[in-house]
Amino acid sequence: MKPAYYIGVMSGTSLDGIDTVLADFSGPSPVLQKTFFLPYDETLRSQLLALHQPGDDELNRAALLSNQLSQLYAKAVIGLLQQSKISPQQVVAIGCHGQTVRHCPETEKRYTIQLVNAALLAELTQITVVVDFRSRDIAAGGQGAPLVPAFHQAIFRSVDVSRVIVNIGGIANITSLGLGHQAVAGFDCGPGNLLLDAWCLRHTGQVYDKNGDWAAQGKIIGDLLKKLHETTHFFTLPPPKSTGRDLFNIQWLDDYLSGDEAVEDVQATLLQLTVTTIADSIDKYCASASEIYICGGGAHNRLLIDCLREALPNRKVSLTDELGVAADWVEAYAFAWLAQQAILGKPANLSAVTGAKGERILGAIYPGL
Ligand SMILES: Nc1ncnc2c1ncn2[C@@H]1O[C@H](COP(=O)(O)OP(=O)(O)O)[C@@H](O)[C@H]1O
Ligand SMILES: [Mg+2]
Fold first, then answer.
1. Is 12 touching ligand 1 by the criterion CB < 6 Å?
2. What does the mean pLDDT of the chain come to?
3. Which of these CATH numbers, 3.40.1190.10, 2.40.50.140, 3.40.50.920, 3.30.420.40, describes 5-145+329-366?
4. Ligand 1 pocket: which of 9, 10, 16, 213 to mutate (most atoms <8 Å of CB)?
5. Beta strand 163-168 with 171-177: parallel, antiparallel or unpaired?
6. In angstroms, what is the span from residue 143 Cα to ligand 1's centroid?
7. Quick one: fold of 149-327?
């Protein structure tokens, strides 16, 4: 059978860089052919972070960053193709998430902004580009997120065990894959790594707390954990729900701190907040699940995984690697799949997950050469 190559390009809330995958969807099950990661530098990360808040000259800065990002997306795609020995002409399309700088699905706003200059990316790669996957779902009344559950369903659902997939990126989201005709459920649980990263950068100069080693030196501050957890409206909301840096950011955290806390104790508390909000979400909405599979960069945080195991006793807690897809690549793989859905004119949102009025074809298509 002739291959059906698609490329997925994911740059998530963590602002760590660009994950790319080459997938072949021609066979009965998808095949992940190659992967490539291109990190962001410090300057780009801080310019992107600055655009998450209102500020001077926003439109111009956003447009310039979209151009700069698209140059980097193209560089990552070319790097991936070189490793794969595949030419651009052999690729059907690129699904590019873009870089979220605002996500406001709530009633008064109802928009989401991912930076990417898709025309430039199509021009630089000569490949058809699909972008802006979230807006149509929001226009149809949904959250525009999470979009990965349909892909999780396509590749990870089992006929005889009820599973949950937990993606721990900047934000953590879960997908519940029940048995039989049970609808797939999914939603954002709250912060994944983004508060851990921000606190770690401020106090150690490191962009993340490798393996959770720094958090392991601290003690959980019970009162602070309780306050963060119990006074945040988002945690009490039922699904469908989604969130981002608009809510969970370092200023949000600062408002809860007295300044007397030991810095490593705050890190330990933030790690536990991620664990508690994920475990609570599973207990509340996926009670029958017996297998939990983790993906996203948080899968590398050993302490986080150990604490999740402790918080979810009597369930198997593993990484998606065990299901045949390494934890780092699941999301980019999903965007290759979402591009295919768009090109084939097939819907890709699950209205039970996002709350949209119905299933919709997602994305805007920019033809290649
Ligand atoms: N060895 C590690 N130890 C702890 N955390 C890690 C490790 N490797 C990656 N991470 C975390 O994973 C994040 C990147 O995860 P990713 O899935 O790319 O998130 P996003 O989709 O939001 O970009 C990093 O910012 C960091 O917090
Ligand atoms: Mg990332």
1. yes
2. 97
3. 3.30.420.40
4. 16
5. antiparallel
6. 24
7. Nucleotidyltransferase; domain 5 (3.30.420)
Verify whether ligand 1 is closer than 6 Å to residue 193 (CB atom). yes
pLDDT of residue 147: 97
Task: Give the pLDDT score at 164.
Answer: 98
Stretches in the chain below the pLDDT threshold 70: none
Q: How far is the CA of 288 from the centre of ligand 2 (A)?
A: 30
pLDDT of residue 367: 98
CA 123 to chain centre: 26
Which atom of ligand 1 lies nearest, measured to the CA of 193? Answer: 27
Fold match, 5-145+329-366 / 149-327 = yes
Name 168's bridge partners: 172
Pick from 40, 207, 301 the residue to mutate for probing ligand 1's pocket: most ligand atoms within 8 Å of its CB: 301
**DSSP string for residues in 150-195:** HHHHHHH--SSS-EEEEEESSEEEEEEE-STTPPPEEEEEEESSHH
- Strand arrangement, sheet containing 129-131: 31-39, 17-24, 5-10, 91-96, 129-131, 364-366
pLDDT score at 107: 82
pLDDT digits (tens, 9 = 90+) for 201-240: 999 999 999 999 999 999 999 999 999 999 999 999 999 9
